Amino acid sequence: MTNGGTGPFHGSLLVCTDGYLGNPPVIALVNPKSPNNVTVLLDNYFGRQFNSIDDLKLHPSGKIFFTDLIYGSTFGFRPPPLMPPQVYMFDPVTGDVQVAVGDIETPNGVAFSPDGNIAYISDTGAFVGSSGENQLLPALIYAFDVDPHSQRLSNKRAFAFPDAGIPDGIQVDSQGNVYAGCNDGVHVWNSKGKLLGKFFVGAGNVANMAFAGDGRLVILATNALLVAKIAAKSALFTF
Questions:
Q1: For 153-162, how does the pLDDT look when each residue is reduced to its tens digit (9 = 90+)?
Q2: Across the beta sheet with 97-101, what order do the strands follow?
Q3: Nearest to 41 by CA among 104, 100, 91, 114
Q4: How many other CB atoms are found less than 10 A from the CB of residue 130?
Q5: Of 16, 23, 110, 118, which residue is 20 to 30 A from 173 by alpha carbon distance?
Q6: With the CA atoms of 80, 46, 108 and 66 taken in that order, what torsion angle do they form, in degrees rounded to the nearest 10?
Q7: Could you report the per-residue pLDDT of 102-119, keeping only the tens digit for each?
Q8: Following CA atoms 181, 115, 197, 71 in sequence, which dihedral angle do they give, to the nearest 10 degrees?
Q9: Who contacts 59 (Cβ-Cβ below 8 Å, separation ≥6)?
């Protein structure tokens, strides 16, 4: 099952999947044009299957950062986890894959500041499946410094804590503002972590959102697919 996506990446879409039963989660290229072929770039970490790859973004270095969590196992469509939830970075040129950071309860959404020097990662540890939410577990966005040479992540600090539910998918605009899908809509913070406002959608939780050209934000809610016209441009990196 496809979960996160980004691009274009050399003319194709870059997507990640949750996996299903014994079929491993993968990072793949999907050709948007006929014959719509799919090329798997990564499906294991030194022989071990990932748990449930959730989201991914391109860094200016050309490396792909992605989050791997255990929701597939939680909901019964994946085997028990073989590795802890972690954030990885993958070099599609060399095939090298490394753990970028591991001390996050449930890494979910991932995005970068416009200059690529800061990584934002949402932690949805408070979501515990059919039991709902445990408000004593993490439900916030962390910021990390990105090493200019190795691209490893360091200096973890709290960036933003939503007042409604958990922050799921995240995006960043060209001004450095950070967007997150939350229980009541899309929350937007400036680069200092100050809440600027919200898009209330009235259609259930927002899982993710994406810029569709300048000034248009596509919002993926539980019960609706919405388009908001906004005075902002994406900071998404493409190749």
A1: 999 999 999 9
A2: 52-58, 64-69, 86-90, 97-101
A3: 91
A4: 7
A5: 16
A6: -160
A7: 999 999 999 999 999 999
A8: 10
A9: 65, 89, 112, 116, 146, 151, 237
